[in-house]
Specification:
106 residues
Length: 106
């Protein structure tokens, strides 16, 4: 009745998806719509644009001795993991970027 790896619920879901797709394609054709993908810079990702004062508030590495960088990286890594565990992905990404910046200056 079904393919070896296809259950009844999967079959219903696939059929419903195909039904909706046909409706959408007919609507697009009737209204002269050509679907296009979304394109944006990969570097930006999900991080929001920060106002200038927030950008300036970032860590100033010139004020930190280089021999303290490794400890700082450890602390920031722990904060990044905590932010990720709390589903604060923008904050985790920001901390990751700071860590990469510090490592590039070692």
């Amino acid at each position: 009745m079904y393919a070896d790896n296809e259950t009844a619920s999967m079959k219903r879901t696939i059929d419903e998806t195909n039904r909706r797709r046909a409706i959408q394609e007919q609507y697009n054709q009737n209204h002269g719509i050509t679907p296009t993908g979304i394109s944006r810079s990969v570097e930006k990702g999900m991080r929001p644009d920060l106002p200038e004062e927030a950008k300036r508030a970032k860590l100033d590495l010139k004020k930190i001795p280089k021999d303290e960088y490794n400890g700082l990286i450890r602390d920031l890594s722990a904060q990044m993991e905590l932010a990720s565990a709390n589903l604060e992905f923008e904050k985790a990404a920001e901390l990751r970027d700071i860590i990469v910046d510090i490592k590039s200056k070692l």
